């Protein structure tokens, strides 16, 4: 699935691959020592927030997820 911003799609795919690998190989096996994908997520999140602003997508009332829950 593509991202809301065309320029964010590659970042989304990289993050998805990182998260899925970490989830399957570490988290599900009991290793909860950290998420190595956090910085990648932050880059993707920033890109999405920028795309939302550029496309003037209304976000009032939307809750954001992730380590940085600030609205764009």
UniProtKB/TrEMBL annotation:
Catalytic activity: a 1,2-diacyl-sn-glycero-3-phosphate(in) = a 1,2-diacyl-sn-glycero-3-phosphate(out)
GO BP of this protein: phospholipid translocation
Entries under SUPFAM superfamilies matching the protein: Non-heme 11 kDa protein of cytochrome bc1 complex (Ubiquinol-cytochrome c reductase)
Top-level taxon of the source organism: Eukaryota
InterPro entries in the cross-refs: MDM35_apoptosis (IPR007918), Ubol_cytC_Rdtase_hinge_dom_sf (IPR036811)
An example Gene Ontology molecular-function term: phosphatidic acid transfer activity
Any one of the GO CC terms: mitochondrial intermembrane space
Protein keywords: Disulfide bond
Family, per entry: Belongs to the TRIAP1/MDM35 family.
The protein's name: TP53-regulated inhibitor of apoptosis 1
Gene: TRIAP1
């Amino acid at each position: 699935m593509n991202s809301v911003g065309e320029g964010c799609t590659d970042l989304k795919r990289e993050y998805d691959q990182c998260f899925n690998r970490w989830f399957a190989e570490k988290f599900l096996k009991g290793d909860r020592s950290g998420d190595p994908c956090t910085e990648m997520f932050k880059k993707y999140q920033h890109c999405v927030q920028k795309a939302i602003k550029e496309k003037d997508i209304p976000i009032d009332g939307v809750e954001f997820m992730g380590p940085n829950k600030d609205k764009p």
